[in-house]
Amino acid sequence: MKKKHILLYMYIAFALSTMPIYARSDSGFDSSKNIDLIQPYFTNINVFYNDFNITNQGKAMLTSIVDARNVDRIRIEIYLQRYQNGRWNTVKSWETNQNGTLATLGENWYVASGYQYRMLSYAYVYKDGIIVDSTMFSSTTIIY
């Protein structure tokens, strides 16, 4: 009986020691931050970075950055939305049109407490006045 237990423990130890490890706890990623980096394989968009946070004082901070290639203009739209009465309503929106291959849009807005908020952002890249690529981002919900 004792020999069977030893063999069983040895088998479990061997099985566990041969399992691959796919994640490391010291990866440096801080999941507590509400920062989202999306790097899809688009035709012209290299990076679409978005950041949304609300401070303890109710200051919503929204940032969107687009880096593209083979384009001459970038348009970014940001929407701050509040969930109220069972639907998302736009509180405030901003837009920028910038020439070149890099565009940024960063805005702040004070929000009322007791609601859920999210950020939507849209990126459009143009070549000779024609949209050649686009994408969108929806943040996680923040309760303030």
Automatic annotation (TrEMBL):
Keywords: Signal. It comes from Natranaerovirga hydrolytica. Residues 1-23 form the signal peptide. This is Nuclear transport factor 2 family protein.
